[in-house]
Amino acid sequence: MPDVDDPALPGGLFERIDPGSDLAFYEQPRFVTHIDDATIAALTDFYRERLAPGARVLDLMSSWVSHLPEEETYGSVVGHGMNAAELGHNPRLDAWHVQDLNEDPQLPWPDQSFDAALIAVSIQYLTRPVEVLGELARVLVPGGEVIIATSHRCFPTKAIWAFRNLAPEERIRLIAFYLQRAGGFEAPDFQDRSPDGADPLWILSARRVGESD
Ligand SMILES: C[S@@+](CC[C@H](N)C(=O)[O-])C[C@H]1O[C@@H](n2cnc3c(N)ncnc32)[C@H](O)[C@@H]1O
């Protein structure tokens, strides 16, 4: 079910060409990258700036790569995704699990388990984004940050209507609105880190409200 209970987010925004099983769609592993190398490098640079050494990182909607800086050591990197073979090949993950967030948006971790949460080039597939972001607010520590990186490519049959039809700046505004409806986050920061001549990189990040240690 999409976020249809929120009158400010009409169900039509979340319609998909293929509303069938997402787990079936992702059953075959895809050992590919979804954005250009230069765009991946720009995202890695952003993570290098924002993620403190030793941070406990959640890579939500992950695959066989996490785009984290290779030289950096984090306290832990926990992955979530849709394909066990992809996640099993991801060298950055200390632990991982498979879960269809459109079926069940409740995350399995206790409150305040992570210092940062990443969603890389994937938020267009969520039909219940407000519930998922509300869960991220729950599992982040106060002052912890969610980093939502977006570009312009997608699997069109699985992306929601909004991400197939809205202009890039409207898509960013929609994600900011998701965060506002989810609650628990400070006002988001937007950065355009698009490299010249490569896939764009538009990043929204927001801190969990409350004092950090
Ligand atoms: C374009 S890939 C991006 C993977 C990775 N974050 C990256 O940067 O390469 C989209 C990812 O969205 C996730 N995804 C798609 N549908 C999902 C769903 N219904 N529930 C949870 N995750 C989903 C899967 O993990 C899939 O690998």
Observed structural traits:
binds S-adenosylmethionine, single chain, alpha/beta, 6 helices, seven-stranded mixed β-sheet, 26% helix, globular, Rossmann fold
**Ligands bound to this protein structure:** S-adenosylmethionine
Range of strand content: 15-25%
How helix-rich are the residues, as a percent range?
25-40%
List the total number of helices. 6
Tell me the number of structural domains: 1
Radius of gyration: 16 Å
- SS content category: alpha/beta
Sheet with the most strands: spatial strand order = 3-2-1-4-5-7-6
Average pLDDT, all residues: 95
**Main beta sheet strand tally, sense and closure:** 7 strands, mixed
Name of the CATH architecture: 3-Layer(aba) Sandwich
State the end-to-end distance. Answer: 37 Å
The number of strands is: 7
Inertia-based shape: globular
**What is the CATH topology descriptor?**
Rossmann fold
Q: H/E order of the elements?
A: HHEEHEEHEHHEE
In the CATH hierarchy, what is the superfamily? Answer: Vaccinia Virus protein VP39
Question: What would a concise description of this structure say?
Answer:
The protein has 213 residues and is of the alpha/beta class.
Structure in words:
- Helices cover 26% and strands 21% of the residues.
- The protein has one domain (11-207): Rossmann fold.
- The chain has helices at 22-25, 37-50, 84-89, 129-139, 161-165, 168-182, and strands at residues 56-62, 76-81, 95-98, 114-120, 140-150, 189-192, 202-207.
- Helix 4 (129-139) links the parallel strand 4 (114-120) and strand 5.
- The protein contains six helices and seven strands.
- Strands 3-2-1-4-5-7-6 form a seven-stranded mixed sheet.
- Helix 4 (129-139) packs across helix 6.
- By secondary structure, it is of the alpha/beta class.
- S-adenosylmethionine binds at residues 22, 26, 34, 61-63, 65, 67, 81-82, 100-102, 120-122, 125.
